[in-house]
Amino acid sequence: MNDKIDVTLNINGREHSIHIEPRKTLVDAIRDECGLTGTHIGCEHGFCGACTVIVAGEAVRSCLMFAVQAERKPIRTVEGLAKNGVYHPLQRAFMAHHGLQCGFCTPGFLMLTANALEKNPHINDEELLDLLSSNLCRCTGYQGIIKAVQAARDEMRPPAPAVVEAPAAEIDPSHETAQDTAPAEPEMLEPTVDR
User: Fold this and answer.
1) Residue 120's closest CA among 156, 87, 91?
2) Is the separation of the CB atoms in 60 and 53 below 8 Å?
3) Are residues 53 and 88 in the same domain?
4) Strand ranges in 30-189 using DSSP code E only, listed in sequence order
5) How confident is residue 158, by pLDDT bands cut at 50, 70 and 90?
6) Structural domain harbouring 140
7) Which pLDDT does position 44 carry in this prediction?
8) pLDDT tens across 65-102, in order?
9) Please, are residues 77 and 27 in contact by the beta-carbon 8 Å criterion?
């Protein structure tokens, strides 16, 4: 089957009209047809996570998805994390906490964790470790990645609402109302025995 079709991919807010075979994977379309090479091809079986992108608000392995399945859905790649030349908190944290070495797995980790932190900025450490275990890194030993994502989470987390204690109420005992008095105890009836 060599028939090509027209597909429009919306990547990082920009539409890309491409002419591809229906069997072309999303990762191949992003890299080869749209020229965005930040998304990496690793295992091509969905195991390593290097190709993770966000499609319609969900982190997906783009090697397991056909490009036609993502047509007209919003797609975010690592190139779309920084805004107006300012790095995303995760990108800054990965640099500050040595969350990358060779950098091959980094785009997948960034997109996976960006999606998770946007959905749940209060993710706890146990949930975070479980999430990170779904992507592979062969260089870092994960400690820098974990520290980086924790730091970004703490930066991105909305502040907790301030707890304000109400001032102690001053009660005027001479101004007692019916609501302030306790209800009367119910009368206890003596049991009667029929003879």
Assistant:
1) 156
2) yes
3) no
4) 52-55, 58-61, 74-76
5) confident
6) 81-158
7) 94
8) 999 999 999 999 999 999 999 999 999 999 999 998 89
9) no
